Amino acid sequence: MINFFEPLIDLKKIEDRDYKISEVADLLQISPRALRYWQENNLISPHGSMHTNERIYKLEDIKRAQHIKELQGLFGFSLSEIKQILQIEDKILDFKKSYLKDSNNKLLKNQLGQSALKEITSLIDLIDQKINRINHYRNDLNNKVHLIEDFLKND
Known about the structure:
The chain is mainly alpha-helical. It has five helices and three strands; from the N terminus they run E-H-H-E-E-H-H-H. The protein has two domains: about 1-75, Multidrug-efflux Transporter Regulator, Chain: A, Domain 2; about 80-155, no CATH class. The chain has helices spanning about 20-30, 30-40, 60-75, 80-100, 105-155, and strands at about 20, 45-50, 55. The longest helix has about 50 residues, at about 105-155. The relative contact order is 0.09.
């Protein structure tokens, strides 16, 4: 079971080495099954071992897994929303890498900048949709509170 209320680990304190699935699960306080499920849904791609079929996780894989846990647990995104978010974040990272390869190309800079703006705006839209749904739910709960308070006053 995933414990979403555990504080996030400080990944700066994590040694840069290969980790087994059980070690990553312990670090992030999630089940190995959650990691496998995220892999099955193409949210994370751990590195394989050359000698066994065991999943090997690098520091970058652990960072991504922690990010998935955070998106799912703290922010309440569904797996399909998380997949969309990760794809956008990966695109933005690709834009950055492309720019760093040819930072003197003004046309490329403009194209990459426009593309990055579009992707970031779509992320903001996704977050705004989530906030609106949460606010709608909160308003419904507040209405129920008022109804119950009125009910109790009429006694």
